[in-house]
């Protein structure tokens, strides 16, 4: 018996005012894999992510986590029961909670029941010395690292990341991307990462899903898309990278 993909999306459609923003989207993400949903602003990336998260419902299509349907016709499993973690660009740490309490937020029993896991995660992003700090005492990069381990703490089967690095200073970004990727690989999480930056996708993805006008126009390994773009627009999109 073969293992089903961690995340599978079949023929997802979502329209607003009769306009399809997500149009027959199909893809799968395996355990340990980072899939980058890449495309220009407004092409439907965040809407796709929201459907997978379960905070929005598609007009039609199916979503499976570990082969089990979480969205299919009338079936709509709520976000908190999908084993899907979320991380957005503004980090949104809880300002009134310390770093340790933020990381433990999604864990049963809170910080007192999960000290070892919280300590281990903070150690891995070099934030142990900030365990009792509050978000306003941290730099943007530090907040980002805390947000990452908070999202990973409950060991979600799938992690969804929407432009997670776009709020960061450019000088920090490459380092944090590499660090994030290393942690994701250690955890073995399946990741769907949304970005409009081709170089970010080239750097982080095992698989790129190139999106335009609600459709996946090409998908495959970064190297293949870069070397053999499906059409002129795809080529133009990758042409800035060196
Ligand atoms: P991206 O994340 O790729 O920039 P989005 O998924 O946020 O794009 O948006 C895709 C399109 O769908 C945009 O034209 C946006 O205005 C539209 N859209 C998104 N959400 C809604 C909504 N709730 N109601 C109406 N239009 C929406
Ligand atoms: Mg978006």
TrEMBL record:
Residues 7-238 form the ABC transporter domain. GO terms for biological process: quaternary ammonium group transport. GO terms for molecular function: ABC-type ferric iron transporter activity; ATP binding; ATP hydrolysis activity. One of its GO terms (cellular component) is ATP-binding cassette (ABC) transporter complex. It comes from the Bacteria. Keywords: ATP-binding, Cell membrane, Ion transport, Iron, Iron transport, Membrane, Nucleotide-binding, Transport. Signal peptide: none annotated. This is ABC transporter ATP-binding protein. It comes from Paracoccus methylarcula. The chain holds residues 1 to 242 of 359 of the full protein.
């Amino acid at each position: 018996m073969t293992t089903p993909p961690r995340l599978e999306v079949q023929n997802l459609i979502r329209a607003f005012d009769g306009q399809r923003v997500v149009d027959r989207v199909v893809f799968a993400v395996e355990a340990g894999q980072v899939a980058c949903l890449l495309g220009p602003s407004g092409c439907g990336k965040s809407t796709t992510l929201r459907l997978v998260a379960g905070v929005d419902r598609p007009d039609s299509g199916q979503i499976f986590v570990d082969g089990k349907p979480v969205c299919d016709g009338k079936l709509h499993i709520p976000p908190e029961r999908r084993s899907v973690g979320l991380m957005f660009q503004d980090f949104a740490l809880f300002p009134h909670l310390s770093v340790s309490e933020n990381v433990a937020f999604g864990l049963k029993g809170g910080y007192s029941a999960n000290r070892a896991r919280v300590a281990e995660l903070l150690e891995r992003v070099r934030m142990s010395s900030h365990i009792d700090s509050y978000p306003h005492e941290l730099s943007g990069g530090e907040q980002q690292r805390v947000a990452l381990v908070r999202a990973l703490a409950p060991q979600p089967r799938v992690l969804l990341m929407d432009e997670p690095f776009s709020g960061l200073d450019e000088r920090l970004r490459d380092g944090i991307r590499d660090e994030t990727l290393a942690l994701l690989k250690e955890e073995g999480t399946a990741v769907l990462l949304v970005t409009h930056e081709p170089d970010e996708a080239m750097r982080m993805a095992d698989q790129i899903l190139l999106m335009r006008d609600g459709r996946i126009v090409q998908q495959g390994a970064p190297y293949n898309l870069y070397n053999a773009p499906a059409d002129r627009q795809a080529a133009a999109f990758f042409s800035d990278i060196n």
